[in-house]
Amino acid sequence: HGFNVLVLTLTAGMAGFSLTGDIFDMFVWFELMGVSAYALTGFLVEQLGPLQGAINFAITNTVGAYMVLTGIALLYARTGALNLAQIGRALGHRPADRLVIVAFALILTGLLAKAAIVPFHFWLADAYATSPAPVCALFAGSMVELAIYFIARVYWTVFAAPLAPHDAGVRDILVALGVGTALVGALMCFLQRHVKRLVAYATISNAGVMLTGVALLDPRSLAGVANLVLAHGLLKAGLFLLCGIVLVELRYVDELRLHGA
Q: Hey, which residues does 22 pair with through a beta bridge?
């Protein structure tokens, strides 16, 4: 029963996060997703691997959550509002001052950690490699993609106008992080023997491609990212479920040991 409750809580967090227009509510719903995800990652708590993966996942994402929450607090101190549109209107009539820039940097860094963007990517492979296959299937189409969606929505609704003079610089930074993540994830994917860890690093690489598409600030690139998110969620979920079938049937998912099996 605990597994079913955690899955329902995770999906409720996704729904609430996607529907709200309040930045603090977005944070709360995302953390509800996070708490459920940590518990699902370590669901087989009697084994050392899932426990280590869950702890790594929880610590890294909690540090990111503190950064996001601090940035939200700074925005509230400046504008007295938590609604995304209200904050955007309050900040839109003047260039960003140092407090707004610090708030943006904190929120962006925290969300990049949650999206497993290099150099904050190391938690994802541990979490995905040790989670039960149905949990990996849920994670594949939700956690990373929603963090990137959070970045896009907050930037365009809140920070696009005050940071307009620095638009090119923000785009260059995000594109560099996205391309770096895509390349590092692809390289690490080629080096893996553990099949679930291999698929996890492929997910990191795809997250970099998604961030790059969002960072280009172009309607066509956003349409491409939307297609990639849909395809990635379905295909990676299928791959993780196949890994689960192999694990049940053969008791291991090491690529070399599987040869000829």
A: 83
- What is the distance between the alpha carbons of residues 142 and 140, in angstroms, rounded to a whole number? 6
- Amino acid type, 158: V
Predicted confidence band of residue 260 (pLDDT cuts 50, 70, 90): confident
**HSE-up of 172 (CA within 13 Å, CB side)?**
4
- Would you tell me the crossing angle of helices 48-79 and 84-92 to the nearest 10 degrees? 50
The three-state secondary structure class of 101 is helix
Q: Is 22 helix (H, G, I), strand (E, B) or coil?
A: strand
Average pLDDT (102-123) is 90
Distance spanning both ends of the chain, measured CA to CA: 34
Q: Give the pLDDT score at 132.
A: 84
Buried b (16+ CB within 10 A) or exposed e, 104-138: bebbbbbbbbbbbbbebbebbbbbbbbbbbbbbbb
Residue partners of 256: CB distance under 8 A and separation at least 6: 193
